[in-house]
Design goal:
Blueprint lengths: L1 E9 L2 E7 L4 E5 L6 H12 L4 H10 L3 E2 L11 E3 L14 E8 L3 E9 L19 E7 L10 E3 L4 E3 H11 L7 E2 L9 H8 L3 H10 L6 E6 L14 E5 L6 E2 L5 H15 L4 E4 L8 H18 L2 E5 L3 H8 L12 E7 L2 E5 L1 H10 L5
Length: 362
């Protein structure tokens, strides 16, 4: 598990530190303070190191230069400048993300260069091209020549066509689950449900869903006929106690869908980290303590370190219900309030005191 995190020159942070991390870490702070940026940094550090992950990150942020009229999507480009502090990426620019655990220090460095290091295998020996830039990635524990650099335009843009080729080659290596603030798409849900069916993890999924609907006895994904419109949540049904007919999960609202995504992501994150943006979306305040209890139990059983964000005081107070007032060292829970270039860490004991005294930690 990570015990601290350091960021240099990534997105809105010229520098940033976060310490005192536990198994469950809730990031709080005002809008645009960098909570999602911290999740993205952890994702890049913990994920399989490849520039394709930077492309995914940029695409999800909307950093895409659209193709002109009459051009195909292949003419579009990903603008990687926005990954760097100040939205500036030129030869010599670099961002660094590092994290310390009890076993080791991990460090990721992404740099822009006029000369690729190492020389890309696909370009032969004459890799240097006038007016072009290269994005190079280095990760601790991996030889410097293991990650092939990517070619960018002079303004640090990456061809969508080249990105797609690179992503298709490495996507099966990505393993860190990241639940965004927006509603999770159906893509992959059916396959992930099938992978836990009749396994011990299925009981965990059902237990999480019972936070909202205690009568849930089972869940299944079935193949739907081809429909004229896209149905994000179609084909996923639950069985309720005392009811013969199965019920579509879409009947239960946003909270049930988010909890399903959360439960499956916890299983997928076994032995790694789970990232959740705005974890309380769709959940009534009365269900949030049970949600945290289930997350903490699953994280301990599956050896998962959880990083989540919220804007909600109810979500913070719900986490406080699980905190131990007598803990002195080795806190399992932490609240990290982001303030400029650092995060103020609240241990379990401090979380309890803050809740009891009505102290605002957001």
């Amino acid at each position: 598990m990570y015990r601290d995190l350091r960021i240099e020159n990534f997105r809105r942070f010229q520098r940033f530190t976060m310490e005192g991390l536990g198994r469950i870490n809730l990031l709080v702070g005002p809008n645009n303070c960098g909570k999602t940026t911290v999740l993205e940094a952890i994702d890049l550090l913990a994920e399989h190191p490849d520039p394709a992950q930077l492309g995914v990150n940029s695409m999800l942020r909307g950093a895409v230069t659209q193709a002109q009229a009459g051009q195909t999507i292949a003419a579009a480009r990903l603008d990687l400048r926005h990954l760097f502090f100040g939205h500036v990426a030129r030869a010599g620019s670099a961002l660094v993300i590092s994290g310390t655990s009890s076993e080791s220090v991990q460090r990721l460095r992404v740099s822009i260069s006029s000369q690729p290091i190492p020389a890309p295998r696909s370009e032969g020996s004459s890799a240097k091209l006038d007016g072009m830039l290269w994005l190079c990635m280095q990760h601790s524990g991996i030889p410097d020549d293991a990650i092939e650099p990517i070619r960018l335009s002079a303004s640090a843009e990456w061809s969508i066509a080249d990105f797609i080729v690179r992503y298709n080659a490495v996507q099966d290596r990505f393993h860190v689950p990241f639940i965004p603030a927006a509603s999770s798409p159906r893509s992959g849900i059916s396959e992930r449900l099938s992978s836990v069916a009749l396994n011990p993890e299925e009981a965990l999924v059902l237990q999480v869903l019972r936070v909202i609907e205690p009568r849930v006895e089972g869940i299944v994904a079935v193949e739907l006929p081809k429909l004229p419109i896209q149905v994000d949540r179609g084909g996923i049904f639950v069985k309720l106690k005392g009811q013969r007919e199965r019920v579509p999960i879409g009947s239960f609202g946003e909270g049930m869908w988010r909890l399903l995504a959360l439960a499956l992501a916890l299983v997928e994150a076994r032995g790694s980290v789970l990232l959740v943006d705005e974890i309380d979306i769709g959940l009534h305040y009365s269900a949030q303590t049970d949600m945290w209890r289930m997350v903490k139990q699953a994280a301990e059983e599956l050896d998962v370190q959880v990083f989540a964000t919220t804007h909600s005081r109810d979500c913070i107070y719900a986490l406080a219900q699980l905190a131990r007032a007598d803990v002195t060292v080795g806190s399992d829970l932490s609240i990290q309030r982001i303030e400029g270039e650092h995060a103020v860490a609240y241990t379990e004991r401090e979380i309890v005191l803050a809740a009891e005294r009505g102290i605002e930690v957001r």
